[in-house]
Amino acid sequence: MIPLQDDNPSTIKPLVTIAFVAACVLVFLWQFSLGPVRGQQIIYALGVIPAVLLGQAELPPQLVLVPPAMTTLTSMFMHGGWMHLIGNMLYLWIFGDNVEDSMGHARFVVFYLLCGMAAVFAQALPEPGSTIPMVGASGAISGVLGAYLLLYPHARVLVAIPLGFILHTVRIPAGIVLVLWFGLQLLSNAMTPAGEGGVAFRAHIGGYIAGMILIFLYKQRRFRVHTPWGR
What we know:
Blueprint: E1 2-6, H1 15-33, H2 35-46, H3 50-53, H4 71-74, H5 82-103, H6 105-124, H7 138-151, E2 156-163, E3 166-173, H8 174-191, H9 201-218
Antiparallel strand pairs: 1-2, 2-3
């Protein structure tokens, strides 16, 4: 299922969501402008490498641009390709405004970054010796999805379902969309061999769970938390 939009208007202009989308797009355009060789070097320099972050390895001096701890932040604004960027920004654009609405701008910034950092450690700690760089906003966005699930499980989401060469659209409760999404991450992680690169499913899982926990601390009192299966 590909989410296209929700029917859940926000009461404030989602300035932070817009800013995060703009920042990710601008950073990716900068990466793209560097060319394939330098672009790959930047991924190693500003992405999270678990072995470097956790002190088991060091980058060559010519690749060191920021301290290892800072890459938990810089990695959130980088992406590995156009589809990686577009997919992440689509989810952030659809679900981010309402979560920002529930917290306010400043709290949403902190919430988003904390979810992203939780996602980094969820991916890194099980394989502390990994030298595969991790980039992307998906860990932080997974936190947004976890929060949205508890805040707005009954909102309707327009999704596109590929049926052969045809995209069929249907409106489905957000609770179903986001529970299925999380289940897919769990299944994909279980089927991915240890040490193999590709999609950081553990980061998605960690960010999602962090979002479900942190929403209780960061939402404003007037917003209620629900269960996905009932009111």
